[in-house]
């Protein structure tokens, strides 16, 4: 069969890489892809948001299944558009994707179905939002969130109500996050350790993937500004058997049945961002897709054919498939451009890629890269995701950190402590 993968990040390279191992697949296209995806797929010069163009391409090239990486086309209804034309596509429709595209929608749903999450208020009116702050002591730690998609940036952690007031002005008045600031959430700050749990969902049945932990801050020891993610590891020990059971009983089961009651059939990958306080899980956010960089550690551990999983989900028969995992660990270290997450230059030549790739237990996933003549050059903030695997986390870390220094480009930076948190326990 022919598969089209939509997107251009490390996540999409990992998707193409995993899909290329499926015996069912003869040809992969990636739109728009990067210098890495072109090794396993044919890159197609169409943007992820160009739904019309992608639709034409899929039907014109007899694509049997389209797999969507990023959230923007899902929120814009790419799944609805493909289904209307009778084309097979893997991901939630526009209504279901609201779990990510509207934080107000997600929070209200959780309140309605008693799913544990930070207590909150949701506001479309700036004055009402400011008034809500009066009920807290002035030193109360709060989180202000813009309602819509803001590329992971619309979340402001505030030390006290004064900071929260300024955050509201930023979001709702100055519209720093654009249209996402039409509505805002003010929520309680939760203490604990974060984990990312991705779940295959077919509208009725679900299967959890191994839990991962992302590293959002740019510098070691979680210092510096937030990024799209500087690395991840899996499985995350904080997601113990006890936490898993509570997550299923308190979060997944009520969510899936709640969605059904609301007339929403969620099919695809559901990403649940959790804060684990003691052994109690609370939902920080939902994403309606695979995480980045979580995908780069979770897919190398997945034994089962991803295409088979996607097909079973689309047929609503996920319960008929036994999903298997390698009993290994994976660590992925993101190499970023100088200046990232702020402004950065592109076009720096990358060396050492083929030497690093020759190492055992290493897969180098490309993110912001481009091919220029014989060279691979940087073309984004997050450039590469270097994944090491091993029998335990320590082996996986060793593998990843042996490969990373072999790869060089001007101004490259990366965290040296990805996976370290697992050993604090
Ligand atoms: P979100 O996009 O909603 O997951 O928020 C981005 C990041 O902000 C999360 O990964 C957390 O690190 C942090 N965060 C969000 N909400 C809260 C909260 N209620 N309490 C503590 N930290 C939070
Ligand atoms: N790693 C967080 C995300 O994919 O949104």
**Low-confidence parts lasting 5 or more residues at pLDDT below 50?**
none
CATH fold naming of the largest domain: D-amino Acid Aminotransferase, Chain A, domain 1
Mean of residue pLDDT? 95
Going by helix content, strand content and strand pairing, the class is: alpha+beta
Instruction: Please indicate the count of domains.
Output: 4
Q: How would you write the strand order of the largest sheet? A: 3-2-1-4-5
CATH architectural group of the largest domain: 2-Layer Sandwich
Please give the number of β-strands: 22
Reconstruct the topology from this structure.
Layout lengths: L1 E6 L2 H10 L7 E6 L9 E2 L7 H10 L4 E4 L2 H5 L2 H7 L4 E2 L7 H4 L1 H10 L7 E4 L2 H8 L7 E6 L8 E5 L1 H13 L10 E5 L4 E10 L3 E3 L4 E2 L2 E3 L3 E4 L4 E4 L6 H21 L5 E11 L2 E8 L7 H4 L7 H9 L14 E8 L16 H6 L3 E5 L2 E4 L2 E4 L3 E9 L2 H11 L22
Parallel strand pairs: 1-2, 1-4, 2-3, 4-5
Antiparallel strand pairs: 6-9, 7-8, 7-9, 10-11, 10-16, 12-15, 13-14, 15-18, 16-17, 18-22, 19-22, 20-21
Helix pairs in contact: 7-8
